[in-house]
Design a protein that fits this description.
The structure is a single chain. This protein has helices at 29-46, 68-81, 101-110, 124-129, 136-148, 167-180, 197-203, 212-228, 247-253, 280-288, 302-315, 321-328, 332-335, 337-345, 360-364, 366-380; strands spanning 2-8, 52-60, 83-94, 114-120, 154-160, 184-189, 232-235, 238-240, 257-261, 266-269, 272-276, 294-299, 319-320, 349-351, 355-358. The two termini are 29 Å apart. The chain is α/β, with parallel strands linked by helices. 45% of the residues lie in helices and 22% in strands. The protein folds into 2 domains: 2-252, TIM Barrel; 302-380, Arc Repressor Mutant, subunit A (Orthogonal Bundle). Helix 6 runs parallel beside helix 8. The protein contains 16 helices and 15 strands.
Amino acid sequence: MFGIYIHVPFCQKKCFYCDFYSIENLSLFDKYIDALCLEIELKIKSLEQVPMVDSIFFGGGTPSLLKPEQLDKIVRTLKNNFDIKEHAEWTLEANPGTINELKLKEFRAIGINRLSIGVQSFNDDELLFLQRIHSAEEAEQAIKSAEFAGFNNFSIDLIFSIPGQTIEKVKRTIDKTISLRPNHISAYSLIYEKGTPLYNDFINGKVKKIDDDYDAEIYHYICESLMNAGYEQYEVSNFALPDYKCIHNINYWKGGEYLAFGPSGHGYFNGERYWNFRSLNKYYELIKSNQLPIEGSEALNNIDLMNESVMLGLRAEGLDFNEFEKKFGLKLELLAGDLFADWQNEGFCSYDNMKVRLNHKGYFICDVLVNQLLKLIDKYS
């Protein structure tokens, strides 16, 4: 598979927990669209062969702030420069406070066929704490608007372990989410990223984190509730109804290639990771001089790729032993069979002679398990 990521670095109001690159100056939108389209054209000129594209993901920032004509210009530029599969997945992240049925109908007509709606919570006090621009009622209306606009593939993003959050509030959000029956759900524990206002409030004692044991209780409650409602957990934070897993994210987790456009975008192509400058001004400066806005890159060696394969595989749909041996020449089932058996006995995974796959208890301590396996590989390989 092959993907394209488009970063839209604008927000109506930046959430105080968010570390993604974005600014609140919406007057720069048109200038940015022009620069973005030029970056796409410059990138194509640098490629020896144009890849076949399976998925396109508009992230941010708040891509749903785009006007239909602005989105249409980007989509046309992509179609004019890439070989995009007929039934490719076109995802756009949407803030409930920025969309309505008419706008979504226009987005759908342009080619967007999947929405990722940033609800975060169905409790107004939690939305207020997170500094979201929408209410719980507006979030529910946005989801109904998506359905009325003809979207039959949409995801809801949720945040849990919000300071002061009770199981009752978690239950309210999960029950409402299940009742709306999205095809896909992403649920993330609140992260305190350095440099964000949330992190500063935490350091200064203005905000108290949920403790690890309670975070685990909330996480397991969410996982079990969603699985009981018919959703498959196919990654640490992602759940889907049958046939509605996110193609774009699966490509990431399987180590597939993807190109990224826009300031702060990260891509992986021809065995090399690269990242764009995290500055709109620097981005404009380089694009204006017909240069790609790449700040740096690194080539991945076989050990890097193997380590990444372990990390991504365990946090998603597991490690297939045959595939791992073909890629790296190691028989994981022989090297780490005893470790996998221990994990299974402790209730962290399912394990047979073909594959090891974590369950939600294992997912919660995924980083610990990844480190255990990598240390074993390093010791004996």
